[in-house]
Specification:
The first copy, chain A, is mainly alpha-helical. Chain A contains 22 helices and nine strands. Among the domains of chain A are: 166 residues, Hypothetical protein af1432, CATH 1.10.3210; 98 residues. At the B-C interface, helix 11 of B face helix 11 of C.
Chain lengths: 409, 409, 409, 409
């Protein structure tokens, strides 16, 4: 049986429905969706794609099914869902997901439409699988949906290890083989078997370390915010809709941004890594609750107001409100003394990590290099921040540096 | 001092002229030139770029300079050359290099023009370095040019290890740290110190194993040939010149291919991995010498003749003549008993590897799936191949398979 | 310059005083002291030694000195201390350290005697270094002693990574290169530079995960307790003293245990991995404070009393009281907003990890397989444990299994 | 199902007869037999044991059986043989194997006696397996014996990867997962499937690189020769027989050598790494054929004659004749164009590697540091070597160095 060589899991044997799905355009498109979007501007090796990640998730799902003794059509359905779980991703993965959702109401795991009306749907039906049920698994529905999308899903196991491998950051190294082997079902819930409180904690800790180092590293956040902003302008300035963008790949989006007048400046900044800098980088306690709760419209209005105060172009101010910390793994369930218990009730680390996340929360206000002082001062006033907050001192020191932004906290 | 995190060499400290060069557009552009071009269609994890490779080459050059005790402006010049050595690469790296050379006379290491008239040249001059001398080092000139481009250059050391890391193929694993430490100069030549015949052999063997498994794997060759062909058609059909293409990145090229009528079919095939298949896959001894020596025009003429015989469109036939085997490392020099000797005189492996390469040499004729039989028969006649050669039997078995092409020989 | 090849740090260049120390008997003896003692009975690949660890610590110290800009005799002294820091270890490293300390008053880092009167002392004096000051560094004294023995010492950085490499447990993977580069001195204290709260946390978390998985895994604890017990009997039954044992290597100790009547039964059990099992495995809250505070004499008395109640030989009962949790890293200092702060004041994880450690604390009572029920019941009475505690249910299930003890929590 | 954590293959699930065999004393003894004997004196991390290697071989055998579709009692027999294949190893593995063979007529894979009359035999019979047939598989007999001992056996696949992992030398990195998956049977012979000439070559090349770098590195050869010599003296001086030694572990042997007057000097030299040095290191062409063909008696006589000429004690001269090069993998069979062919007929590398081995062949004469000149001169005369051969120049330069012997060629 032929296999695909993966830099993380070595040889992956792709069989059955998965082998047929592999050749469909929606799956092949994932080759051109970068797994971590603009994180590659911080970690130059992080060029991996949703395609290899999807193969990895398929592989781990297959191992988990094997370990759980699930076979037949139910297993095929899970394998299909694992391979397909990311076909709903827009270009640059999560970077423009919020925008797409605002415009279309769809998140990346709302894939019913994509599965039913495409070559994927054809393959699934040929193999006796109902596309809607596969889409349901991807959304976390059904008993086995938990394997693909849940607190203990194989999606997370793959991305932690893979993102660590490609960024070079060692923190995502979990014992995925143990995790997969220790999964079991208790009253219909996917849980970890006896003796695995610490295994569950390790998953939580890996995410807790990868988050600020990789996923929400400040330069990654700035470039992501800039890309989102540019994509908004693209939709405003052209006939393209969020539904179009959702089906594009990274090449389509970058190419469109380059060729559209309203966004070509961003494209140049992206290409040359001439990114905005932090005018404000404020801690949780220094930001009024109303600002922490900003939705899109309010952030947009605040940006205009700050720009006016600072006398810069509106497009030159970005207000980036981090989401309130959440921690999905905290509700993972583990068997302890023959009883199913929530990890947060078993592990004192859960609430501590939640608190640690809150401490790392930051409000960012970004602008071009030469406007930091003005924009910072304007933002402090407009957003009623604690006066000491901005402009952040590090920023000044970093004016000339690209390097400090590679992988530094 | 800030560092950049690399998945191969861990933290890379970038200082001096290199730190300033890093921010220039020609260097940042390398982030969007894939290191192995279409090899990613065979090894899905092989999405690494010339940018991370260039950082790695800079890092190894820095280590080698340190070990050799070279300092000051000469060292800075070599470090600059190491970081810049690939700025002349066209999109998809080597894939369209032949075409660019035919049209412009320039190879990827002819970078004088690129260095002199660009932000790079400004930085170099500011730092007291002459862009032309840096370009000379990249072309392998001068005493220290051998470190950047020669039989024992750090370029090869980095790419073998990096390509192995990202493809998952273990064969490129050399002891680069040892290689770098054992370099020395003898009569102006960069050689390996006493006791390193085997170290030199290991470099040769690593390439000998990576070549057929990765660099000239048949699906990689097919997709590369298709990309080259499509780019030729793009130049014919549009105003763009090879000089333009040379400065593009992967996004520019793929986007242009998609948007141009004459090449949109290729773009679809590339995006959906609906590649041509082998109609002929003939060994060295089965191919007349005149065919093995085909240049561009003759291959082009042969394609047309085959297409006519087979009654298919000319664009549906590709004749892909592999270069005659060469083996640059064979002239590496090693000190043996206080004498500088050529590796090929010391190691019986060199001539054996040359012979092994010849055995692996193949002439490929590619076409769409459904024309294999016709095109194969036509090619056998037109090229006067040994009748048993084509259409190759494996091809038939593989008609429905994508998988067999992942990493299989 | 010649180098030593290490499986963790690749080539290690050993120079200066370190190169001369390498050949001395006390350093060569470390080749025969296993790094993790009886942990190899749980993780079969964990056969690494104090010698390779000492080389690793030397290497990281050298990198840290370089990054801190420390040179000359002070740097040589630190490098010597790094290479020598473990010469005071008894056979099987920490396994019999408590016993040695009880009898000699010396811990493994009390090495003044070993350094002054040995070939090591000669080398140090020849190189102009005072053995007593080197011993002082090893004990954590002086400004630079913190590098070798302190909250942020390179000892811990090496052993976490090395133990992870050799056991196969991924949790010890820290970013040691970053740690070494971010060290700095503030008011004479070794601290982490600005922006490294999370780097400090990662060190803490790595230890928190390695502890229960590797260092205090239950089978590791049982075999360690058995070895300690056997060594006590060896000292009672022979003329050898703790001072003798302290200078032995693993071969000496195992050989003595085999050849002495009083300990040959243990030696057989060790060789055949016929270990005692858990009769009691009680949580912190279920154990009276007086028992948790047991020193050697009280534990010894309790063992005799339990054996009498259970009608087994005294040698067949081991009471193993885990130390109260401590967490050295919690007092690590990190610069935050230009101020030196303690990690425990900055990170909510510290107190949570302390609480997590308390939850994982266990009192063990061990005995031969066939006496579990009797010894368990006797121990519950004698130690006034909560009645539900013992005999632990898992134990029963595991009677026939060796396998469940490999790496399971 | 419980698993054992391995640093090379991660989790290894041990089931069926293997799980029962694991607990037997002959298998547990392998924990105390070092895989590479005295190679640890060159590569300090190479402390791995026959136990972890045996688990690895079991694991690869299990994967190969799975891929080949072999099940039931035949598969159990192979799995048992894989786990047991090294129980016949003497202490320090191959180091004293020649001596044991001379005295007992047994090689390490002659294990019928060990299997029939031991706890192993009991377990096998309980599980319905005939110990003699299992011993036959270990000796390479039967159709499936080729999996355990043959040109393409899983033994070699494990040791190459494992020795590379533990020494840090990257050359052993083969694609073992591919090798295992591509095995197939053709007319009763275990061969590699179509398209694997290069896979077979890679195995050959990995050994060709590991040999001089690790297995026959000169310091490894010297220490091995010294250990063999000391063990001969031990047998002469005591009641112990080669049959006793064969069942010992490393601890028994080193302890006996230390406690026996006739060998305590060696033990001290081993412990302090005060090894003999090369007085002669002669190439193939410089050594008369009669000397290259020396058996034990002739080497022994030559040593005495050299010692007499050089006026040193007989025990201070060791003549170490390397075996004639052989290359087992050369007869590996691979399917090419549906035909089974020998690798040596397909690959020009085979004969080149044979020639390369011959060039690396060396005759060594070793003695204490201070007798190099006298012994070298005496050996040249006595053995009628080419006069230029000895004493080798490098040796003189290395008199004070330990370091140059770590991993240098």
């Amino acid at each position: 049986m032929p296999t695909i060589k993966d830099s993380v899991h070595d040889h992956i044997a792709v069989e059955g429905v998965a082998a047929k799905l592999l050749d469909t355009p929606p799956v092949q498109r994932l080759r051109r969706i970068s797994q971590l979007g603009t994180v590659k501007l911080v970690y130059p090796s992080a060029n991996h794609t949703r395609f290899e990640h999807s193969l990895g998730v398929y592989h781990l799902a297959d191992r988990a099914l094997d370990s759980l003794g699930i076979e037949g059509v139910e297993a095929e359905r899970v394998r299909a869902a694992a391979l397909l779980h990311d076909v709903g991703h827009a270009p640059f993965s999560h970077n423009v997901e919020g925008l797409i959702h605002r415009e279309t109401g769809l998140y990346h795991d709302d894939v019913t439409g994509l599965l039913v009306d495409s070559a994927v749907g054809e393959v699934l039906r040929e193999e006796g699988l109902d596309p809607e049920r596969v889409a349901g698994l991807i959304a976390g529905e059904d008993r086995y949906g938990q394997l693909v999308s849940g607190e203990l899903d194989v999606d997370r196991m793959d991305y932690l290890v893979r993102d660590a491998h490609h960024t070079g950051v060692p923190y995502g190294t979990i014992d995925h083989e143990r995790l997969v082997r220790e999964l079991t079902f208790a009253d219909g819930d996917l849980v970890l078997a006896e003796g695995n409180v610490q295994t569950a904690e390790s998953l939580l800790l890996a995410r807790a370390l990868m988050n600020p180092t990789v996923y929400t590293q400040h330069t990654a956040r700035i470039s992501k915010a800039m890309l989102r902003r540019a994509t908004e302008r693209l939709l405003d300035a052209t006939e393209w809709t969020a539904h179009d963008v959702r089906r594009w790949d990274d090449y389509d989006l970058l190419s469109a941004l380059r060729r559209t007048d309203a966004t070509s400046e961003f494209a140049r900044r992206y290409d040359e890594r001439a990114l905005f800098k932090r005018a404000v980088w404020a801690e949780y306690g220094d930001v009024p609750a109303r600002v922490r709760g900003f939705g899109f419209e309010k952030a947009d209005a605040a940006e205009r107001a700050i720009a006016e105060r600072a006398e810069v172009r509106p497009r030159d101010v970005i207000v980036d409100v981090e989401r309130e910390p959440r921690m999905r793994e905290s509700t993972s369930e583990v068997i302890v003394n023959d009883e199913v218990r929530r990890l947060e009730d078993e592990s004192p680390l859960v609430s501590a990590l939640r608190e640690a996340q809150r401490r790392r929360w930051r409000l960012g206000v970004y602008c071009p290099d030469d406007a930091i002082d003005r924009v910072g001062a304007a933002a402090v006033e407009e957003l009623e921040l604690d006066a000491e907050t901005a402009p952040v001192s590090e920023v000044k020191e970093n004016v000339h540096a690209t390097l400090d932004e590679f992988g530094a906290e």
